[in-house]
Amino acid sequence: MKVLTNAVVRTMDDSNRVASAVAYDGPRLVAVGPTQEVRRLAGPGAEVRDLAGRTVVPGFIDSHHHLSIALIYGGGVDCRPEAAPSIDVLLTRLAEAEKRLPPGAWLVGTGHDEWKIRERCHPTRDELDSVSARRPILLIHGTWHEVVANSAALAAAGIDERTPEPPSGVFSRDRRGRLNGHLAEMAGTLVEPLARADAIARDPHGLANRLGAYEDVLFSLGITRICDATVPPSIAELYAGARCEGKLRIPVVMMPIGERGLFAHPEDRLEGPPTGEGPEELRFGPMKLFFDGGTQCALCLSFSDLALSLGPVLRLVATRGLSSGLDLLRQVRPSLGRDLRIRSGVRYYDVRQGRDFVRRAVERGFATAIHAIGNEAVGWAIDVLGAARAAHVRQPPPRIEHGMILGRAEARRAADQGIMFVPQPYFLVQLGDALSHVPLPPRLKLFPLRTLVEEGVELAGSSDGPAGFDPIAALRAAVTRRAADGTPISPEEAIEPEDVLRMYTRGSARACGCWDVTGSLEAGKRADLVVLSDDPCRAGSTDWDCLRVVETILAGRTVFRRESVVDRTEVLRLLDCVAPRV
C-alpha cells in the first residue's frame, strides 16, 4: 500500500472534489480524500510520501494520437521544411537514403509541406523518378491528406493516365494533362497501404521493438493512455502481438478503420470486433470516419459571410502580398452552388450516405467518431451523429474529431445532441502562423474552445501526435491562445486551466470508452496518476514555463520521475517528421 500526502489532489470526479491524499495498492486506487482518513484506510504498514504541496491529477489521456503511424514510418526520410527547405535538398535526402535500401523496398519520405519550401510547390513524379525510376517512392505530406508518388509507385497501385479519380480524391495533372504524381485525399489511399504493407513485411517486429523508447517519452509527459485514431486490422494484430510479448506497457484504445487505407470507406471493418471489445489495456474504440479533407476542409459561406470576410482577405494581401491571396484561392478551390452558397474543400460523404453508414455501424455495436474540420462538415457530422444518438446508450458518446472551424450555432446543436468534440489545442502553436491569417466571417471561429465550453459541449484532449503531444504545452496554448511567434489567435476563445485538465482526463476517458477504469481519481479505478510541480488551477498561476510533470504512475508503478533521464531528442527527431498535423 502506498500513500501520497500533503498534495493538491484534483480528482476530476463527478463532484470535482479536491482532496489532500491518495492511496493505492498495486494497480488500483484504494482511497482519495483528507489525509487522516486516507492514512487510516491505508493502515499502519503503508508507505507514506509527503509531496510538499505538489498537485496530483489523473493520468493524461491523448484521445487522438497516431502511435502506429509513428512507429511504422518513424524510419522514413525526414522531409519536413526544416530538413528539406527546397526540392533540390529534398531529392538529395531521398537519393542518399535510397542507396541504403535493399532492392524492391519502398522509399518513404514524410513531413513535406509545399507552402513552407522555397518553390512553394510539390515535387513531380519525374523529379522523384530522378532519384529512382524502378524503386517505388512515396512522399507523404505533413497533413497525411496528400502524397506524391513516382512512376513506379503509381504503377504498383495500378494508376495510369486512364484511371478515373476516386470519389473524394484528386489526381493532379500538369499543363499537358499528364499525371504529375500528386494525389490528394482518397486518391492517396490507393498508394499508401502498399508502402505500409511493405514496411510491415520487411520489419514485422518493428512496431513492438520501437515501442519502448516512444512510451518513455509519453510517460515523461504524464500520458498514461492513448487512443490510436487509425488502426486497420493488420495494425491491431501488431498491437496484440506486442501485448502478448509484454512490450506494450501503455494502454491503447484502437479506433478501427478499414484495411484499404486511412481515408477509405471502412465497409470491410463492420464485421470486426466492435467498440469496447478487448482487454482493459487494449480495447477497440469508436469507428473512424472522414467527412472532409485536411487542408481542403469542407467550408460553406453565404454571400454575407463572404462580404464580412473581405476585410481579413485584404489584410492578408496587404501583409503577405497578392501571391498569398492567390495561393489561398488555389488551395481552397471555391465554387458556387445552386443554393448560391460558396463551398470549398473535399467531402467524403453526403448526409444520406453518412447517416446510413453510421446507423449500420451503431447497429453492429460501434460508437462513431467523425473527422470534420470545416463548418459544413461539422454541421453534417452533427446531423448524422444526432440521428444515431439514441443507439449510443451503451457506447461512448459520439464524437467529432478536430472541429476547427465552426460557430455558436453548431456548438449549441452538438451540445443538445450529447456529441463530444476532440480538438487539438497545440495546433494553435504548431499552425498558428497560418491560422492567424485565415479570413473568416465573425460568426465562425478557429478552434472555438470557449464557445464549445459555454454551450455545454464536453471536450476531450488530444494532439493528433506524434508531433506536439505534450499536454502541458497544450494547456498553455489553450489558455494563452498564442502561436509560436507570439501572435494571438482568437484570444476571446481562451479557456481555463481546469477546463484543459478536464479535457485530458475525464473528457478523454469518456470519449475513449474507458471512464469505467480511468479518467478520475476514485477508489476502485486504475492507479494512473501524474504529479505536477504546481497547481495550474491556482489563482494567479501564469508561469506556465515552470509547470512540469514530476512523476508519472501507471497502474501503481512509477514509470517516470523527474530525476530520471529520458533522452527525448533522438526519439522526437525520428518521430516528429511523421506527425499527421490535421
Write structural notes for this entry.
α11 (351-363) crosses α12 (375-387). The chain has four domains: 2-53 and 521-547, Roll (Urease, subunit C, domain 1), CATH 2.30.40; 67-199, Diaminopimelate Epimerase, Chain A, domain 1; 286-291 and 351-516, Metal-dependent hydrolases (TIM Barrel), CATH 3.20.20; 299-344, no CATH class. The longest helix is centred in the middle third of the chain and has 18 residues, at 303-320. It contains 19 helices and 29 strands. It has a six-stranded mixed β-sheet with strand order 3-2-7-27-28-29, with helices on one face. Strands 9-10-11-12-14-13 form a six-stranded mixed β-sheet. It has a four-stranded mixed β-sheet with strand order 5-4-1-6. Mean pLDDT is 89; it is low at 565-582. It is α/β, with parallel strands linked by helices and 582 residues long.
Summarize the structure.
By secondary structure, this protein is of the alpha/beta class.
Question: Layout of SSEs?
Answer:
Blueprint lengths: L1 E4 L2 E3 L7 E2 L1 E5 L2 E6 L1 H8 L4 E4 L4 E4 L1 E6 L1 H7 L3 E2 L8 H12 L8 E6 L12 H7 L5 E5 L4 E4 L1 H6 L12 E5 L5 E7 L6 H11 L3 H15 L2 E9 L1 H12 L7 E5 L25 E3 L2 E4 L8 E3 L1 H18 L1 H11 L2 E2 L5 E3 L6 H13 L4 E5 L2 H13 L11 E4 L2 E2 L1 H10 L2 E3 L4 H4 L1 H4 L9 E2 L2 H6 L16 H10 L16 H16 L16 E4 L16 E6 L2 E5 L6 H9 L6
Parallel strand pairs: 1-6, 2-7, 8-15, 9-10, 10-11, 15-16, 16-17, 18-22, 22-23, 23-25
Antiparallel strand pairs: 1-4, 2-3, 4-5, 7-27, 11-12, 12-14, 13-14, 19-21, 20-21, 24-26, 27-28, 28-29
Helix pairs in contact: 3-4, 9-10, 11-12, 12-13, 17-18
